[in-house]
């Protein structure tokens, strides 16, 4: 039975590692590779470097005070520290992404290299720089690759949240910072996950969570900077993903701990991704370090 | 599991001396290892079918290379009494398409996840020898296709299912089907072959007419519906399976679960042959055969008398209260020697 728990965690990640390296070499010509170690959240370069023209993001950010949390994957005793950071209150919208590609033509649909996005990249758009009428400008952008998401974040002086940061925020419900033990909250997430075509809805129409963050579950799956770090961690142990780790998480799934079902779904989604994939219900939001002065956010 | 099975097989062989388990590493009559069988020719796209139909028998052909195309979808359809349910499927049907191959065949399985799916899906085929039964190799996010290749080493009737987490939900929504691996030379010819799968559904009302998966009921293993082929009445009325007096019938019956087993029984018939658990051991003259969740059986019988024969899970509340009921309609002449209403015929 453990195999079922591991099923989604199996794709060969080597190619992604290679592609990631390639991009760092080619695009940003600097190497600051994201650590796979969940114990520390390393900073990604923010602000402007060569070849990335700055644009302004009007999306409000809120401060998430750091803390320790128990990751979905990992041994029972390992608590992970998340340092304070700022996160977008909603996913990046079609309108924002449109502004980005207007000023960054290399990320337009007809210019983007296949290495950085598959053939479904922004496929619903009527041209490189125009949205169809039936797509709302303030609905989350989808069909964007991890590379494109990272490029957008860089252009607005931000970065993608790490998996730990994202999951840390995801623990909150409307009234508490950690609702993992509440069954009603868990059920609510699953209910939202199962709704089709919800990615076409506008952002911030539902209630914000404890931190003031909207749309963590009800619109799109979201890229994280290290979306496959669990796999990389496992791989770094010599490919011995013997179920031990996963089985732990699996063992935690019980009738009263249904949240793990929602988390299983998220991790399974992430595990099926490659960095150049674009998916109809997969978008992203941005984060930024507390010590960044790039945009002078109130902290 | 497989190791234990092999170990048991070896022990049995040692104990009984000459016994060679038929299902291990090739069962070809000439003693050739299945692994060494060469799949000839260019790859062909395999015919697959929705229940209760099955693809044509393999006959006496040799091993081939086959391409099997499956698409995972999330669709709404009727489950019972005018109620709709959001099913997750392989090829838009519950159960998913029946796959029919020969031992020694090499199969290139393409699993495409529909672009409008909300979730990732994959496939674990119990007929596959290899990690996850293919699940690890086929994890596909919405809009993507994954491919893997396997050699059918063991003949038998096997369940396949989605193994993306949470697995009970994926199976509970209908993501299962059967793959038949015929032995060299094929199964004996019969007049009718049918495909039936039992699965149970745990539901709650989303709207007046739309039901959806209820995890609490699934965990409690307390389903609202126990159904053949994913819909109440799928084998009733104009959907009854049929045969004529004197004909032979073979039913490929599987259980998707996710939790319940089936005490499979046809009221008023006796199974002449049952391939126990879908494997190579054939039992005879069986009234009710037990089918595990995630397991299958092949039952064969000759029909000798006309009438409507009721197909049930003989855990009978499931049949009479939860929908696990179907019918085989047999037409033809009555034979008073077989059955007669009243005293001895004169």
Describe this structure in words.
- The complex is a heterodimer of chains A (299) and B (346).
- With 299 residues, chain A is mainly α.
- In chain A, 29% of the residues lie in helices and 7% in strands.
- Chain A has a three-stranded antiparallel β-sheet, with no helix packed on it. A two-stranded antiparallel ribbon of chain A has the order 2-3.
- The termini of chain A are far apart.
- Chain B has 346 residues and is mostly beta strands.
- In chain B, the strands form four sheets. In chain B, strands 1, 3, 4, 6, 8, 12 and 13 form a seven-stranded mixed β-sheet that branches. In chain B, strands 14-11-16-21-18-19 form a six-stranded mixed β-sheet.
- In chain B, strand 3 and strand 4 form a beta hairpin.
- Chain B starts with a helix and ends in a 15-residue tail after the last strand.
- Classes of the chains: A mainly alpha (299), B mainly beta (346).
- The A-B interface holds A 3-11, 120, 187, 190, 193-197, 253, 255, 258, 261, 264-265, 267-269, 271-273, 277, 279-282 and B 74, 86, 115-116, 118-120, 122, 124, 131-133, 135-137, 139-144, 163-167, 169, 212-213, 215-216, 219-220.
